[in-house]
Amino acid sequence: MTDAQQTAAADTGLAPSEPSGPAPVPLLAPREGVPPVIADEAGLAGVVAAFAAGSGPVAVDAERASGYRYGQRAYLVQLRRAGAGTALIDPVACPDLGPLGRALADAEWVLHAATQDLPCLRDIGMVPSRLFDTELAGRLAGFARVGLGVMVETVLGYSLEKGHSAVDWSTRPLPEPWLRYAALDVELLVDLRDALEEDLARQGKLDWALEEFAAIAAAPPAQPRKDPWRRTSGVHKVRRRRQLAIVRELWTARDQVAQRRDLSPGKVLSDAAIIAAAQAAPADVRALAGLQGFGHRMGRKQLTHWQAAVDRARALPEDELPQPGQPGSGPPPPRAWQEKDPVAAARLSAARAAVTAHAEELRLPQENLLAPDVVRRLCWEPPADGGPESVAEALRALGAREWQIAETTQPLTRALAAGA
């Protein structure tokens, strides 16, 4: 970017990576049109052959039915590669995409917000060995907004249709406008990747990005969350152990129904209803029916089912009731540090300020420079001697990447000493 462009960017309040320019050009249809959806083994074999013979990076995206169906399975997979064009695949009709994944094993996969799609892609046999995440690249390059549509507009000058991102992708057959939207999601993904790579290289951040991408590709599948019922929205309002037991029993009962009916749990029973029942601890179905979320539209059979869950919680012995707060091996919540360990609280304040200041200098989000949990753990149990080598080793043990260690060791060493 020239000095004049940087000055213009500053005048408009945009980051240097987000220059102002002419209005974006609407991208209304894929270059080769909307391809037919592949829904049989013969069609899939043709896609495998075509993409294996293609060249360069392969753009990959997946559509889920979050908010409609149970779990996070893929209901449409989109790919695009030079020499192969665009493919739309129905993973319900073709549940094993392992042959396609193996055909693309040596290619770089380009995804936007890769960690969102990789779990559902892994479930159908598609696991990249190398990837480029355009959302993460945008964060590291200093973009304030990193949604795919905004990035395509800002970097490439095209506007994408935004109307179908939250539709029920389990619908069959999928409407043509939805398929057009899905195909356009991968239409310019490789172009965006190339532009961001140039931007990162110019800023001296490309090696950082490649290290981040390698870490994502190498990460093992996420383990099931312990006590997932504790993530019920509004659970912080529930203080008593008996009430927490009601949350747990209702959450478990709802999850079983949702899984059996293949529905999003929120469509079976809302979190607000679970919290209302926990706070009221109704003694019978009639009392339950008067609570938020258990209104007149709910049948007697359903009410009886939920009341049974409440009754199970009411009948539990004291030693089987859940404890308040989620147990963990890490440091306490930062709000409790001042009372528990004022010296550690001072270290944390100094370290946070140091990381924030350096992140601003580097034009990237603080959480991408160093994960907040890493900062907290370092400050709660700092290395004994507090020297740079010990701090770097502590960061490495906490999972920080080498580029993060190189950028934050000195600021954190000074902060730990100042907050001691």
Task: Describe the structure in your own words.
One of its GO terms (molecular function) is 3'-5' exonuclease activity. This is Ribonuclease D. Residues 1-12 have a biased composition (Low complexity). Residues 1-28, 318-339 are annotated as: Disordered. InterPro entries: 3'-5'_exonuclease_dom, Exo_C, HRDC-like_sf, HRDC_dom, HRDC_dom_sf, RNase_D-like, RNaseH-like_sf, RNaseH_sf. 52% of the residues lie in helices and 9% in strands. Helix 6 (148-156) packs across helix 8 (189-203), helix 10 (241-261) packs across helix 14 (300-315) and helix 19 (388-397) packs across helix 20 (402-418). It has 420 residues and is an alpha/beta fold. The relative contact order is 0.08. It is built from 20 helices and eight strands. The longest helix is centred in the middle third of the chain and has 21 residues, at 241-261. The protein has three domains: 9-218, Ribonuclease H-like superfamily/Ribonuclease H (Nucleotidyltransferase, domain 5); 228-320, Orthogonal Bundle (DNA polymerase, domain 1); 334-418, Orthogonal Bundle (DNA polymerase, domain 1). The protein has a six-stranded mixed β-sheet, sandwiched between helices. Strands 1-8 form a two-stranded parallel sheet. It has helices at 3-12, 41-53, 98-103, 114-123, 134-141, 148-156, 176-187, 189-203, 206-218, 241-261, 265-268, 271-280, 285-289, 300-315, 337-340, 342-362, 366-369, 372-380, 388-397, 402-418; strands at residues 25-26, 37-38, 55-64, 74-82, 85-89, 108-111, 130-133, 158-159. It is flat, with a radius of gyration of 25 Å.
